[in-house]
Q: What sequence folds into this?
């Protein structure tokens, strides 16, 4: 490696340690351009992008390393596979780990990593024999025990998942990811005080202010900052709990939220600021910690729905502007229903959550419905030509306005599902066999949203069965 490259690496590492991510990115990018086959440089550059919050660039850099880099050495393949898996590129990660397993067939860690990648691909049935063999080789390895618990969870075998978590806890007491997995396995069986307490083991947002962390103390008319976290769907789902802070004595509530949700949250009577815009308050509380810190137990407050309204539904606001209105219906007798089939492209769980675009014609064939695409992003390009498409607004206030002009929404498990549920729109959510914890594993209703119906796979990857059940429901 030349002196220039070494100097750039040193500069990049120094900038990274000092939190100067833009400078670190520039330095590692220069080295990466000179050494495109060096996987370690690519991983370092991807890590800088991750710390900067640019997840799309993380995946782009790592996918290029997978396609063009030299990962023939098992150790390099393992490192690249681990980075790819964290970035949501499970298929490429599985290829890396498969190479490691082939080179080191008796290595339990390699088999466990491959099992984790197969699980991320939604192939828990394929992952289980891999992790079972690995756990036999290293029965006290807490990482393997945790992976085994996750695979049994995805197979809906929750008692076995909890037994593996017990063993993992014994091998590695107090391990936060293990406790967080216990939260998921507990909450998917129903909201509970135990589940919410364990859920606080996730990485919690902390504002850069002097505000005190609120754990249920008397508020005495003090001010509270509710800090945003995770995806936009979480924001809409947990907003129902925010007014309870006023009921507990808060004199002022500031809601930190995604920037494109500020106008919607504000028009609903909340003081809202964009993520990262720190503001001084007496207290702060992470949004998703409210059920635990309000001590709600199994009560998810479904009786508060609707708890958000579209600007166009509020008397003090004018009708939606041009670009936030649908044109007239082609068939006045048809129901107009929105359709969304894919979520955030940077979210790793899309592999199992997204509805395959190849089956969209089967949904469009359901009679008596005028379908309208509300699909954001590049996934919208996969829409069949006969599917009506509208110009979508740039923020969630405009999206809420559009939803109020529909008779209902059919969507996968993504942010707009929670917005539709929060405003009380009839909504049908298409779910994979073992979905995210909030939906449980059985039944068509959900305590979170009274106007929502869950359309579940009855077996792994059975999206055709979901279409059949949806057709029965909408035709009834």
A:
């Amino acid at each position: 490696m030349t002196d220039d490259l070494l100097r750039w690496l040193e500069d990049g590492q120094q900038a990274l340690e000092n939190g100067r991510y833009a400078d670190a990115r520039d330095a590692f990018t220069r080295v990466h351009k000179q050494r495109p086959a060096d996987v370690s440089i690519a991983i370092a550059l991807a890590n800088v992008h991750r710390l900067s919050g640019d997840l799309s660039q993380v995946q782009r850099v790592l996918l290029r390393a997978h396609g063009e880099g030299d990962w023939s050495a098992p150790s390099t393949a393992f490192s690249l596979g681990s980075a790819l898996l964290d970035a949501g590129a499970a298929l490429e990660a599985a290829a890396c780990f498969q190479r490691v397993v082939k080179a080191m067939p008796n290595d339990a860690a390699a088999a466990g990593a491959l099992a984790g990648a197969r699980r991320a691909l939604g192939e828990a049935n394929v992952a289980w024999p891999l992790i079972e063999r690995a756990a036999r080789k290293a029965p006290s390895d807490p990482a393997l025990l945790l992976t085994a618990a996750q695979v049994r969870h995805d197979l809906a075998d929750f008692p076995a998942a909890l037994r593996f978590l017990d063993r993992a806890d014994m091998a590695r007491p107090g391990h936060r990811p293990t406790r967080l997995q216990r939260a998921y396995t507990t909450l998917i069986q129903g909201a509970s005080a135990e589940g919410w307490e364990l859920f606080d083991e996730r990485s919690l947002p902390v504002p850069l202010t002097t505000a005190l962390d609120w754990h249920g103390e008397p508020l005495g008319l003090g001010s509270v900052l509710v800090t945003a976290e995770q995806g936009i769907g979480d924001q809409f789902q947990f907003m129902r709990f925010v007014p309870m802070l006023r009921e507990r004595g808060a004199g002022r509530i500031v809601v930190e939220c995604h920037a494109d949700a500020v106008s919607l949250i504000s028009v609903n009577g909340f003081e809202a600021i964009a993520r990262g815009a720190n503001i001084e308050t007496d207290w702060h509380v992470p949004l998703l910690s409210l059920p635990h810190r309000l001590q709600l137990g199994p009560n998810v407050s479904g009786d508060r729905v609707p708890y958000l309204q579209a600007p166009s539904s509020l008397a003090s606001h004018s009708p939606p502007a041009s670009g936030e209105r649908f044109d007239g219906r082609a068939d006045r007798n048809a129901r107009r229903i929105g359709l969304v089939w894919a979520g955030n492209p940077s979210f790793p769980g899309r592999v199992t959550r997204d509805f395959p675009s190849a089956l969209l014609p089967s949904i469009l064939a359901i009679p008596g419905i005028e379908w309208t695409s509300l699909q954001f992003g590049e996934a919208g390009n996969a829409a069949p030509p006969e599917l009506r498409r509208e110009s979508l607004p740039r923020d969630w206030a405009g999206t809420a306005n559009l939803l109020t002009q529909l008779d209902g929404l059919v969507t996968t498990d993504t942010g707009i599902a929670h917005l539709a549920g929060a405003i009380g729109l009839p909504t049908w959510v298409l779910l994979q066999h073992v979905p995210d914890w909030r939906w449980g594993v059985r039944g068509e209703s959900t305590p979170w949203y009274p106007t929502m119906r869950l359309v579940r796979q009855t077996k792994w990857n059975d999206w055709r069965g979901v279409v059949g059940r949806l057709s029965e429901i909408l035709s009834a």
The mean pLDDT is 93. The chain has four domains: 1-103, 106-203, 212-304, 335-475. Residues 1-103 form a domain with the Serine Threonine Protein Phosphatase 5, Tetratricopeptide repeat fold (CATH 1.25.40.10).
